[in-house]
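Checked the freezer inventory, then went back to the computational side. Two predictions to log before the end of the day. The first one is the construct we discussed on Monday; recording sequence and tokens without edits.
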Amino acid sequence: MIAIVDYDAGNLKSVEKALAFLKEESVITRDFREIEKADKVILPGVGSFGAAMDNLKKYELDKVVKEVAASGKPFLGICLGLQLMFDGSEESEGVEGLGILEGDILRIPDKPGLKIPHIGWNSLTLQNAGRLFEGLEETPYVYFVHSYYLKAKDEAIVKATTEYSVRIHASVEQGNVFACQFHPEKSSTTGLRILKNFADIKGGAC
């Protein structure tokens, strides 16, 4: 069972439908016991960093998310979910993130000819043997919707990058914790393979 954390963010149903297509059992929930019992946990989302953290705290889900990440259970953040896993974001100055991983969430710099938010398909450059990307070509295309991007503190955890005005750390992996700035649930067969790779990861201490 995969628990999809429900904190009133958008895009939860898309993740649930993609997992159902893969015949993976999932539940959208904010029930602590369901999340703790699940084999794996996904934190998806679209929206603003500050509002998302407010909701996580309102439902006290920030605590259970941190517990899951520390437990060794496979955990995946998607889009806003990736950003929330870090200490904070330029989008919401002064708002404290979950602090599960180290790095900065920065606004994509303006550049002539490029629109912000970044919406559309971009190729990834894979590195550091990320488990989410097993079986994929070296430069797979995935779908992005974002105005802010990750610059991880430790390059060793970065498993995929993309270029859009700046070099973006598009996916990271540290122990049992995984995150993607792009939307695997909207990235066709490539995204389904990424979600399947996550579903197939065995739990345990990191």
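The second is the one RB wanted added to the comparison set:
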Amino acid sequence: MTAIEIRVDDLQGSAIQALLQAHLDAMYEHSPPESVHALDLAALRHPSITFWTAWEGNDLLGCGALKQHDAAHAELKSMRTADAHLRKGVAQALLRHILSTAHARGVQRISLETGTGPAFEAAQKLYTSEGFVECEPFANYVPDPYSLFMTKVLADEDLCLKSPN
């Protein structure tokens, strides 16, 4: 794989809309409706959210978003790799980019919610490998057997060692 280009996205393109629809479909396939916390296009356009896509030329590789809860706390949302690019480091590159950007913005902690079933094991492994640990529900979340909550405190030394640049 050549260099991955990660850029802020306005969610207008058909490729990203299709990838996000596949993401939502998969969430509903693997979790009951009341336990799906993935955001739709309208919600992802909220001013508190920055949305990124990863590209190789004209090929969409994946996406991820950061929702700002307050100056010190943000949430990772909508991490998804296109099926054709799984296990190529796309999600890790996106995650590291988002962590670095959050740190530059002064965010001190990033949290996330992911699923608990087998379909979410790869995501859980990625988040754990990047220093996320299990935590209690945050923001407006409530305990849910289909949700795993994780958080990471952003430390300068972690980001220096793992910077994608």
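For RB: DSSP finds five helices and seven strands in the chain. Residues 160-165 have pLDDT under 50 and may be disordered. Let me know if you want it refolded.
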